[in-house]
Design a protein that fits this description.
homodimer, 240 residues, alpha+beta, Nucleoside Triphosphate Pyrophosphohydrolase, Arc Repressor Mutant, subunit A, 2 domains, seven-stranded mixed beta sheet, three-stranded antiparallel beta sheet, 10 strands, elongated, disordered N terminus, disordered C terminus, DNA-binding
Chain lengths: 240, 240
DNA sequence: ATAATAGTGTCTGTAAGACATTATGCC
DNA sequence: GGCATAATGTCTTACAGACACTATTAT
């Protein structure tokens, strides 16, 4: 009991080590809808959840992966070609029961990217509804996705995260649109703009987006890839 | 490359599995000061960081631990005797370099408890200053502690977390004190009380705390062990 | 009465919500 | 001019900050 912290004076048996993986929840907005990237699991009988849809991810490779984050970045780049996404850790899930091959722990990241030109082998976008997704995913990936979604929606209330779903240059209406798609409710334009300017989030570029109507000013982030925090949430949640 | 998600059609070699541990950052308030629980690492030459101070934690035991959270609870109970703490995951840290014994990943939880009657073997409280701690801890535990501290301080701005540092019954002044100790700045009494009542956080009990002055109403949480979110932070942070 | 802490009231400031109004391009 | 969307303005509301004031016990 005193040696609880130690490895009982002998090396921990490798067989007694949990499996270690990284999963990435990659979000983008397509067609006014939040989407998550899924992959099909290999269809061999030796694999658990063969042929099912799953979050992109896999075991940590102790040779090639320096740390968890670079492992997540590698997987994301393989599936989307994106090299500098917004990436944030959601947390980790581990236990006896989540993988039939044995005690396993997975480290979950979520990422926001603009729609990429094309996807890697076997990757598809799945649109997300108000109540998440109905598709049954492999392992406990429905739980992981739900957690990432909850984190995203909660942070969207008071941060600039949705800007990372857009290309470098965008109009304020496009930015507002990203918020509305994720929160699934309309926002007041006036309040939205005041908040964005007060937070010193964007700088105008010398360009205009034209269309069948009044052209809009284009902006870009003042600090690309750094999330900005607003002083309040959009509509203060009732603390029931 | 297509088989990235699989284990390349053979079982992953156990030796290729990272070490998996759980560490717990246990906070309490003693003597108007935030404290963190540390343990001394065993002083054998076979152990890395022998004799140094570290966060309580250790390897996951695939036999006895059902999942990560119960592993964290077990370690917490061993050191403090507390069975129903506030417990929240901070995140996970993993990489080649953080443990000389090999690629390792740790899952970090933080916990808030009232001062326990006594501590387990080799456990001590270390007071935390405005800028964290100066003691050099084992492994990357200074980083983990810093992350937990940042999470705590940030959530204290807009949640009821500090209530979990107190016994079941407490006065509003005592609760405010917990906030002030963690944030290391005074709060307005009037605003504080309004906020607590508006959030419907507490209910009065039919008791009074007496002293050398006007007695104070005792309260208890309406929903023990559930954190409540306030609609705003205490003092809105400047967004830059 | 005095000290000490509990508890309330009033006024101000900040940022969001609601909604109306004006501006500017294309057809 | 008409339409569509961009951009701004005004008024209200919610809640925190500052600070003064009152209340209740022990000594």
């Amino acid at each position: 009991m005193k040696q609880e912290n130690s490895i009982q004076n002998k090396k921990i048996l490798p067989e007694a080590r949990p499996l270690t993986s990284v999963d990435v929840v990659i979000f983008t907005v397509l067609d006014d809808r939040l989407n998550v990237l899924l992959v099909i699991r290999p269809n061999t009988t030796e694999e658990p959840f063969a042929g099912m849809q799953a979050l992109p991810g896999g075991f940590v490779n102790v040779e090639s992966d320096a740390d968890l984050e670079s492992c997540a970045l590698r997987k994301l780049h393989q599936k989307t070609g994106v090299k500098t996404p917004y990436l944030e850790q959601v947390g980790s899930w581990g236990g006896k029961a989540r993988d039939p091959r044995g005690w396993s722990a997975t480290h979950v990241y979520f990422s926001l990217i603009p729609p990429p030109d094309r996807l890697g082998e076997g990757a598809v976008w799945l649109p997300i509804g108000e109540h998440g997704i109905k598709t049954r995913l492999a392992f406990d990936h429905n739980v992981l996705l739900e957690a990432a979604l909850q984190r995203l929606r909660s942070k969207v209330e008071y941060t600039s995260l949705p800007a990372f779903l857009l290309p470098d240059e965008f109009t304020l209406s496009e930015l507002q649109q990203m918020y509305e798609v994720i929160l699934e409710r309309p926002l007041e334009k006036s309040a939205f703009r005041t908040r964005v300017f007060a937070a010193d989030l964007v700088k105008p570029v010398n360009k205009i987006r034209t269309g069948n109507n009044r052209p809009a000013q284009l902006y870009r982030l003042k600090h690309p890839r750094k999330a900005v925090f607003f002083p309040r949430t959009f509509s203060p949640r009732k603390s029931d």
